[in-house]
Design goal:
Elements: H1 2-19, H2 31-39, E1 46-48, E2 54-56, E3 61-63, E4 66-67, E5 70-76, E6 85-92, E7 97-105, H3 114-123, E8 134-139, E9 146-154, E10 157-165, H4 174-183
Antiparallel strand pairs: 1-2, 2-3, 4-5, 5-6, 6-7, 7-10, 8-9, 9-10
């Protein structure tokens, strides 16, 4: 008796699903679409893992929730003003230092100054002369504090690992160097 009720209920549910389009299950519904819809709108090319980390698909760069003394704050997607930047993960240590992992495609001549453009060209060399990473230090134009950036090539994309602090001393290098080992090829 129970078995016939279960079969009858299943047949009724199937009949309803096939007659009411709004309830019908789509033929294809990948699991990744479920996770994307649950995690909100993500920038193009980005996904969110079950552990809360973000991943930029093309480069394979993973932005962890925490590392060193820094906690993830937010993900900034591509901006039409800088189409080669695929996204940036921002971090804070709660003590006035900020960190960033920026993923970008190579664009010859791009950057705020000639040093960035030169570094990018060196890192993207295909003749075997590319260094494993390049580092630059200076003053942040936004905050006036010390800034250190390590750039690496990851799967043909440039990854900038930056740390900024409000004081004018050279920032703690641990974030930038550790970040470059997480993302470097």
């Amino acid at each position: 008796m129970r078995a016939s009720r279960s079969i009858h209920a299943a047949i009724s549910a199937l009949a309803i699903m096939t007659t009411v389009p709004a309830l019908a299950a789509p033929a294809e519904f990948p699991l990744s679409r479920i996770f994307t819809s649950l995690s909100g709108n993500l920038p193009d090319g980005w996904g969110r893992n079950m552990d809360g980390t973000f991943k930029q698909s093309a480069s394979g760069v993973l932005c962890p929730k925490t590392f060193q003394s820094f906690d993830f704050q937010r993900l900034i997607g591509p901006d039409p003003a800088t189409p080669n930047v695929l996204g940036t993960c921002l971090y804070s240590d709660g003590a006035g230092r900020t960190g960033a992992i920026r993923i970008r495609s190579y664009l010859e001549g791009w950057g705020d100054d000639q040093a960035i453009s030169t570094n990018d060209k060196l890192l993207m060399a295909t003749d075997g002369s590319a260094p494993p990473m390049l580092m630059r230090a200076g003053i942040s134009r936004k905050t006036g504090g010390g800034r250190l950036t390590v750039t690496v090539d990851k799967s043909g994309y440039l990854v900038d690992c930056s740390v900024t602090q409000l004081s004018h001393e050279t920032p703690d290098r641990a974030f930038a160097l550790y970040c470059s080992t997480l993302t470097g090829s």
